[in-house]
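Handover notes (outgoing to incoming on-call)

Open items:
1. Limbic system-associated membrane protein: sequence verified, structure written out, both below. Nothing else pending on this one.
2. Nothing else urgent.
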Amino acid sequence: TDAPMLNYIFDAHSTLNKHQHHHDHRWGPHFEGESSNITVQAGASVTLDCRISLLQDKTVSWVRRQENGGKMNLLTVGQHTYTGDSRYTIEFQYPDNWRLRIKRVNSSDEGQYECQISTHPPKFIHVNLHINAPSVQIVDALGEPLRDKYYEADSTIELLCVVRHIAMQVQYSVVQWLHGNRVLNYDTTRGGISVKTDLMEEGANSTLSIAKVGPTDSGNYTCQLTTMPDQPATVHVHVLNGENE
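Limbic system-associated membrane protein structure tokens:
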């Protein structure tokens, strides 16, 4: 089980800072890098490096420290994974890099990770992982968020949805357009509906076009990601008839 290793980590951690700098690392295991900060987009995969020289018979572990100095979760020991989350794996890169890989990151993965060497007391470095939260907005020609949009009858609705801070091609997410609760992406009942989505490295631009609009085309139009439907953008479209102009 991982209990002995966890107890060892907890017991030794409080004394680590007192002793770590008194060891001459030239004569034992030591890190080739320093603590670092990494920022990635939601949906992407990330690799946390941990290069160690002169490891000898010591063991390398990755743990995750909860916020405010809370409990620590053991992720890997040596080349074995101890977390039930299959997105976490250890990938040893010869000759000295004990890399922690996290697939399809989301906001819950944000926080502090520690790579540890099982010396007495243990040595460690931190990697602080920050996740860019996805942004979904329906915008006007100047890129400002839209709340209401007015169209004349028989004109064409054109709405632009801008998605940022998510690796769309990795996430396999789709930009979805709705009128009320009705999905428009593959709608063939009305006719004249077009959805064009351009994927890019950090998001997507999606344009909804509806030709020859009438009063029944008024209402709320929503742009959302199929993988994150709880973060939609909505605009209220008003179709004006000739009498109101």
